[in-house]
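We modelled the chain as a single entity of 188 amino acids. Its sequence is:
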Amino acid sequence: MTASNVTTPAPSQSVYPVTPDQGDVREAVLAVIVDNEPGVLSRVVGLISARGYNIESLTVAETDVEKHTSRITIVTQGTPAKIEQIKAQLGRLVPVRRVIDVSAEKDALERELALIKVVSVGDQRLEAMRVADIFRARALDTTPTSFVFEVTGAREKINAFIDLMRPLGLSEISRTGVLSIRRGVTGD
């Protein structure tokens, strides 16, 4: 083999340290149960972003008023080793009570809610209503030239609904991000 046939990998463009491949990248849905106090969300998000990972979806709300706890649901991607590292580091933060890898659960439920505005008239308007009926989307608002649909389900369902509404006059999208919960008697 001559030197001209040898290829070298391109240097990384990332400002974050590059480690050797540690496995396939997977999506992780993490439920982080935290004390509901000022600054907790920024500490959790800062920990993940400081390590160079993107948060694809983030939802947070108080879940127990008496115990002053909130649930932060984070969707991110990484190798199994990196996901374990993120979980361990989140678990060490003082306001974090528990970290649950919901995506690792066999029968966890994941859902998302989206509000979709479609501006159309005539046949496109009728087709938008037919598609909404197939997806069991509710029309929350109707004007002579627009609809606002509410659709709930898996992200794939929401994405498919959006793709079908694009040629029918899709105007605006608002999404909650992923919500998740484990089935059965196991609680937070």
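As a brief sanity check on the tokenised model: The first helix runs from residue 40 to 50. The two ends are 59 Å apart (CA to CA).
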